[in-house]
Specification:
It is built from 5 helices and 8 strands; from the N terminus they run αβββαβββαβαβα. It is α/β, with parallel strands linked by helices. Its EC number is 3.5.1.28.
């Protein structure tokens, strides 16, 4: 590529005052970056934990019920792992049985949220933490998992209230992490590489669900 001529101001001498100001600004910027980095990393020191508020939820209106800490991993997402995906599950059981399983340390799996058939949303793991839900470590680290009460072979379990509540939840997650609202970023458990699960199953209405998510995404929070 040919060289471009410098603009007329390109040869202007930089005064000592400008150098001092520029140097001070650069030093201040570096100090701010260093302070922010320390603020993010201090809690990773052995024996130090990032502050958490007990019972805090990420989705307004959700009820907090804690999963066993054997079923998730403490993290600081999206700072340490970027979140770019929502994974849809179906419980293959009742809401109560799913909660009980996620509170069982021997279950070794849980999602961030469960949506009941009546549209009630329960959060069991904070979004900043990694839930063991996808059966794939990479997908666990980069996703938020949402269970839906019901069975994959019972289309009547997939209620309008459930679709609408879940769509609002997914829309807020997408807004929070700037996730595109499309089928590449909102997927079913069955689509995770290496999984042997089939949920959300053949009766999950993706067209309706995605339409509801897009509508909720463009509506006021």
């Amino acid at each position: 590529m040919g060289q471009r001529k410098a603009p007329k101001d390109g040869d202007r001498k930089v005064g000592r005052r400008a150098l001092l100001i520029g140097g001070t600004a650069a030093a201040a910027g570096t100090a701010l970056l260093a302070r922010d980095e320390l603020a993010r990393l201090w809690w990773r020191t052995p024996g130090v934990e990032k502050p958490r508020k007990e019972g805090e939820v990420d989705f307004a209106g959700a009820r907090w019920v804690a999963a066993s800490d054997a079923n998730w991993r403490r993290a600081d997402r999206p700072d340490d792992f970027g979140i770019d995906m929502v994974i849809v599950h179906v419980t293959q059981g009742s809401f109560d049985s799913a909660v009980k399983a996620f509170q069982d340390p021997g279950h070794r799996a849980a999602t961030h949220y469960i949506v009941r058939q009546d549209g009630h949303v329960t959060q069991m793991i904070r979004e900043l933490d990694v839930a063991y839900h996808a059966g794939n470590r990479d997908y666990n680290e980069r996703s938020v998992g949402i269970e839906h009460e019901g069975f994959v072979d019972r289309p009547q379990d997939l209620t309008d209230e459930m679709y609408e509540a879940s769509a609002r939840l997914t829309a807020r997650i997408c807004a929070r992490y700037d996730i595109p609202v499309d089928r590449e970023h909102i997927i079913g458990h069955v689509e995770v590489p290496g999984t042997d699960h089939t949920d959300p199953g053949p009766h999950w209405d993706w067209d309706t669900y995605m339409r509801l998510v897009r509508r909720a995404r463009t509506s006021p929070a």
